[in-house]
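One thing: mind reviewing this one?
=====
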Amino acid sequence: MLRSSNDFFNKSNSNLVCVCFILISVLVNFNVGSEEESPWKINPMLWTTVSTSKPSIGKSILNLFRLGVRNIVTYTQRKMQTRTIVQRFLNHPFYNESKRVAIFLNRPDEVKTRKLIRLILKSGRKVFLPWYEANSSTMKLLQMINIYDIKRYTKENKDGILQFTNPENRTEAMESGGLDLVVLPGMAFSLDGKRLGRGNNDLYPNYLNELKKMSPHYRTMGLAFKCQVVYDFPLYNNCIVVDHIVHSYKVYNPAAQIIDLIDPFGNHTHYNEYLKFKPRNSSIPRIKNATMKRLYKKYKKAKNKKATNKTKKNKKSKKKKSKNNTTNTKPKSG
């Protein structure tokens, strides 16, 4: 009887532990073993090869990431993710060690940076924002004077990027002592730090090559939503490899049990071992993220609907033609 009672209590305790663990995962939104907490895998067939033997950025990939950010990530999700990204950025050692920071004013499909800029300025650090002329290959990083510069002196250019209206009155970063930290925008980031830019309009690679001559010990960081973090993609021309990525993931790969609490500053050296065992080169797109799966299904449904509508129209037109032919071939009465 004692054994049976002990077994009963042990079973009840184990059940309680299981229930508590499930409740904690629901309350904390930990998503243990869920597909949403794993990065998205890009199909290698989407990359277009060029004569330089290095792949170039396909428009289909850039459009897919834009769709992902606009359609998948809701307004509330963006708020939550940006909050965690800002907290992680402010606690990062790269930021704490830097005094001169270059950052960007975000587009609608990027992580919001206005609050972050205000906090950096309040801390007493110098902030620099990108500026370039239309149809030019050179870019400048100009210094901000106050927090009010964002509202008063910024205007959208042809590419939809907010810039200073009076660049003549501002000091350039390389002319006044270089930079300690450069925060880069990007459409996507791989686990080992590779950055996917915006194609031909990306002016950061040339600027960073010149910056190396003046301040060789500068560091780079990327800000990314969950759907912008992918397993891997091939290197392309002028591809920037970022030192660290600030993201909002709790777990990158639940199977490997790699948790951000072990590595809270986004150091991706742990993930390189897992990438070796990754399956390669398949014609089927490996979409891990559940939300990206939904988007892919919607895209497939829309394609199938178009195809069915076309077939229906063709059938109707064929029926009409056959009816007209039968009426014409009938013998006239009288």
